[in-house]
Amino acid sequence: AQSVAQPEDQVNVAEGNPLTVKCTYSVSGNPYLFWYVQYPNRGLQFLLKYITGDNLVKGSYGFEAEFNKSQTSFHLKKPSALVSDSALYFCAVRDDNYGQNFVFGPGTRLSVLP
Amino acid sequence: DVKVTQSSRYLVKRTGEKVFLECVQDMDHENMFWYRQDPGLGLRLIYFSYDVKMKEKGDIPEGYSVSREKKERFSLILESASTNQTSMYLCASPPAGRTTNYEQYFGPGTRLTVT
Fold first, then answer.
1. Which residue in chain A has the smallest CA separation from B111?
2. Which of B9, B40, B107 is facing A106, going by the closest CB pair?
3. pLDDT at A99 (0 to 100)
């Protein structure tokens, strides 16, 4: 079965500092990994995905994520956080053994402090 | 750009009422999904549909049904609303058919309160 863990409910970081939002996953087949962001009272917006190829994936708004197969992780990173990055972040996985369904993590709330 | 719209942003209903949540996508996508979002639980899949008149249960289908009579529209139905169905409901649709490497496009969500 597929599963996604986001071990931190909340991450606080000062503006201008690097940020990391953690995600680990479990799948039986090849993983397809995604990060989404949700601003207050809005739907989810796609940030980036890993399908195959380079382990470092670059996405929207200066975010990037690193796929680590041995650690089954896909942590989201940004070199310099902005106050406007404050939002709820979701990691999701699809398993090529399980077709269409995404499995989402519980979400991590990022607060960037000015 | 793909657009996924939901009929209401906020909805307040009474216990026992029949509730319809509508989702429309404008890009001729085959697949459409309904999720509910609750704090600390992330998104949980209620139902999804691969094509018109096709539906499949997700992880938490109890208390819900769906309808897909036209390709662009996917409706979620709460036959008899209960307070434990108070939640944020999100509709989503990926741009491709039966492939696994496309992201979901989400609607803005409907925040349903059942009193």
1. A41
2. B40
3. 61
